[in-house]
Amino acid sequence: METAQPRLDLFDEIDAKMSSLIYRDFVQGKVITKRAYDALRAEYKDNPQYTLIFNHETHFKKLYQHIGSELILDDSGEFFYIREVGDDGADEADENAFKIQVVLLILGRYFSRSGRDLELLSLPDTGLDEADISALNEDPEYTDILRAARFKNGTQEALDFITSRNFAYKVGDKRYFLSDAGNAFLLRLVTAYENSDIEG
Mean per-residue pLDDT for 53-61? Predict the structure, then answer.
């Protein structure tokens, strides 16, 4: 009688170093986007972390399920993120999500009020520049909102916060633009706001 050959363990198929980098990014509240912006070449490139997760999605879903998290693919912005299952860590995750929403809504509102299309916020050549950052810092409405959201150092701290979580990219010293994830999140917030306005 033949004995069944042991199946190659999925862990052997996956680069352990990259898997640990992905985990570290998720734990730091980052999203893993399909495209990453290469500031040195000034162009988008495929993100190998996203590709690895996408190609082995079942494995990563099981892996994070075993450590109390849920892996989620957001199709609209083409990015992965994890959320805690149960109550542990929910408060911190909720606060991070709230802060990201506040920053994106402020940027969207500021851009709309200045007569520019929201799409320009997600283009590397446009986005926010130093003049925009100064204008945001000088507007008492925006600074009050940011302070209420626990950004003590204003616009710069808020931009650093969303950039560190891959919702925006920094180009040069003082230019920022939204990533695909940031843009998808902003458009979703705008749609929700418009729908609540109509229903109200």
Answer: 94
